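Example 223.
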Amino acid sequence: MKSMKNDNYKTIAALAAQVKGFLAEDEGMALYAIALTAAKLGPCLEIGSFCGKSTVYIGAACKEMGVTLFTIDHHSGSEEQQPGQPYFDPEIFDEKTKTINSLPYLRSTIKKADLEDTVVPMVTRSKVAARNWATPLGLVFIDGGHSYESALSDYQCWSRCLLPGGFLIFHDIYMDAAKGGQAPYEVYKKALASGDFEEMPMVNTLGILKKRGAVVVKKQAGG
Ligand code: MG
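Predicted structure in complex with magnesium ion:
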């Protein structure tokens, strides 16, 4: 049983390793493990799909548990990914439209990972997707724009949808300003100060918060 689980981990990590992105393997594995628990409560949602590296990890857990993963990205790249900026990658630059376009990479990842019946890509800005959103969520992963305004907006738009016992996870939490931008950490601290969340141990740069309140685990179909 244990080796089966390890083989599963290896397959997921090997798939994710082929995908462009900025998520470390330990962070991906933590997302996978948490999503397995979160999916017992409801569907999962991530902001910042990019080419689908984290989508592979969270999606694999959602597939196993029979729930949907919604993944949001405008796919035009972040500020740092534009031409002339430090994270510019010519491979995701569409010469025809002269814009960044990561959507074909996400679609290819979803297909390769056999997640077409699990993952719902939403090609829009997070705020627009949130406007009429009413589905309660088991997990929200915030890895979109890294400006304070973007991270705050993602937190405000989506944390309200989390079910009690659900997980709010931030990527790129750097407690040391010399190691990385502070905006996600500022928003993480704001979320913690709200009193609505319990702080879980960090995994690399993943900040993990659990929504307080009485947990209602849905009965699985046929269970
Ligand atoms: Mg990130």
